[in-house]
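Sat 14:20. Reprocessing the chain from the morning session after the first attempt stalled halfway. Input below, unchanged.
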Amino acid sequence: MQFLAGPSVFADPLLTFHDAEQRAARVAAVDYILEFKFDETSPEYEGSATITFELNDTSTALALDYSGDTAQRLSINGTIVAKPQRDQHRIMLAPKYLQIGPNQVQISFRNAYSTDGNGLHRALDAADGHVYLFTNLEPYLANRVFPCFDQPDLKAAFTVSVNAPSSWQIVANAPTLEANTEGAITQHRFAKTERFSTYLFALIAGPFRVWEDAQAKYPSRILAVQSMAQYVDAEALFDLTREGMRFFESYFDIAYPFRKYDQIFVPEFNPGAMENVGAVIFNDRYIYRHEPTKADLMRRANTLLHEMAHMWFGNMVTMRWWNDLWLNESFATYMAHLAMAEATRFSDDAWDSFARSKGWAYWQDQLPTTHPIETPVPDTLTAFSNFDGITYSKGSSVLKQLAFRVGPDNFRRGVSKFLKDHLWRNASRADFVNAIATAAGLDLTAWSRQWLRTAGINTLAPRYAIDASGKIVDFEIVQGPGNGDKKLREHRLKIALFDRQGSELTKRTTLDANIDSNTQEIAGLEGQVAPDFIYVNYEDYAYAKVFLDERSIDFAMAHMEKLPANLRTAAWQGVWYMVRDEKISPTVYLDLFLAKAGLEDDANLIDSFRYRLQPALNSYISESLRADYMSRAQTMVWERLHNVPAGSDLQKSWFKYFVATVTTAGEQNRLADLLNTNDVVPGLTIDQEKRWSIINRLAVLGYPQAEKLLGSERQRDPSSRGQQNAYAAQVSLPDPKIKADAWQEFVSGDAQPLNLLRAGMRGFFQREQRELTERYADEYFSALPGLASTHGHYYVRAFGGGLFPYAFVDPKILERSEILLKEENLPDFLKRTLLEANDGLARALRIREAFD
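Finished this time. Tokens:
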């Protein structure tokens, strides 16, 4: 799974590890026969399930997971159960009806479609009124759709049939066997599937537009909603799909394990994508209504390849329990980048992209909520909280390090052995590490313990002296224990030395090193002439927060543009770490940005600066300093828009900064002019997504014509995506009544679909509107505990994270949040949300105090 945004349910059901373990010891050989009936106009669907399984113990009742609305006509081994026992989200199968050996349960059900993106979701496309249905079931949501044993180690085969309007396409995990039409209704029967976990079940329905790849080795289709069909670049997606299939089949030495490969793009999907067997669902934001940059295409390629890697690692071979979620997601993340580097047109930039993406891990790992990569997961609610930067980004970074440590060929052989040894079964982290260790002939016990089962991030920095003749004396790498468990770890890495020659920086040499102590002397550098620049994690094999030595910092600050492309990311990161760690003022970073970012020719790197510039400008400096830096940045960005190549990715990237730094009335007018003509900035096409970004910024600033422009744009773009943008812009307007009405919708939680509310929440608190919205900060803390007991986890997490008043860097907000954290009944997932928000706020306050 890939997440764009996320959230399950505090009042929602959960499954504990203990209960799952107990049930797995009793149950085996599960099969489902599922029938569904869909109606285009009804808010509900109905269905039936026939569940067969082997049972070895009938001494106690057996729980069948089901959190749907109604269950009817329960039959166990041919006996009708007049009064089924329902224990919250479970149907209890009484011992007197069960038998040792084969059992059969038959049950009918009726459920309302969900509006929060989970279970079986119903999306109404605002552009044309078409209805689309799709599932989202990880980690414990299949039981919202049909009764089942909803845990990853009770794999099953599924036989599905669906009655639905004849104008609809129906997609399931297996190929269609037949479709019989009677009048306006068609019955679709699908082949029996391979055995896989319930969270990978998929059902998609609606009047989709379909593309088929005539060149594919396996039946391969793309589906998208009708209103987005004009934007689908099907051939590019098919090309990438074929490249990925060839690469993974060769790398794993195992043919694609399923019989078809559908990729479905839908609106209102909570994650970025989900790896359902043979039917991958994507958030349709990966269909671009704008001319995509290379960075956009790389992000989409990475997601597509990530989900494809899961077909082997995750779907064919699956974790036993959610403590190994990290292995599932980390592996797919690493393999996606490897495939990009070795099998696609993005080969030159794949590992630079990987290095930039590690910022997520570095941020997450330094929070007070850091945890080991492999961490105990007592229940499925905890599992959902672990879809984070440690599970995805740190885990994949550690796998890259492991591949470097054992060698890429040994790593590949170990992965292939792991998959072949556990075909169609469940496996654990120990199984995976043992397979790699066997292939490499190494003992990885200590490595596994220190990297997978401890928390925190180390620091690495070079330390050396220079003698009177300019030569190196006593070169060593200093490792800091960092945060979390404060453990030193073993790091395999490359050290690179660079010299300035004329206008270029050239690499002098690289050395392999193994750092496993607090200080590690590096042989081979003693007596060499001191280089102009040193980097101790060349090619990014180590996972650590890497600092530069003083000489290298001075060179980078003066000559950032002369660094090789793969080092500029590292150098910019290094300076930013020093800001976050309160070692240098945020104005140093801002001055560096103003002086050097304009010389950068890598649009991907330009894009990445935004994630640091936002906190630097909005949280780490005072209002007076912000006004000055916003003005200087606007001037610089306006100049870059006109001087980079017209229509280039650089121009598109700089446009985002231009919108974000507009403040004055004159700048607002200039921004508004872009809505009426493409001639303001030659070569820059103002597409629909850019139009919404302009209107949103004008709304935040209270531009006099903002409401009129918003109304016109809402009519211009009636799509579901347009609705979200319009709602976000409306909530951003500095109007007391609009804010009050929006707040009531947020607190009620049921006035709009969750995806729409989430868009509005992001625009509610604005730094420019403090006086207008300050009172809602108090209301936020008052409302949150009650919502946690009455609303679903997905909603509460959206409210808790999306409406935390980050815009106000105020110690009173931190104090209020810390008081709320002391409440006994606050669920753990919400405590985590607040702890992470508090960390960012406390850091901003410390930086301001240190450097204001």
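The two ends are 42 Å apart (CA to CA).
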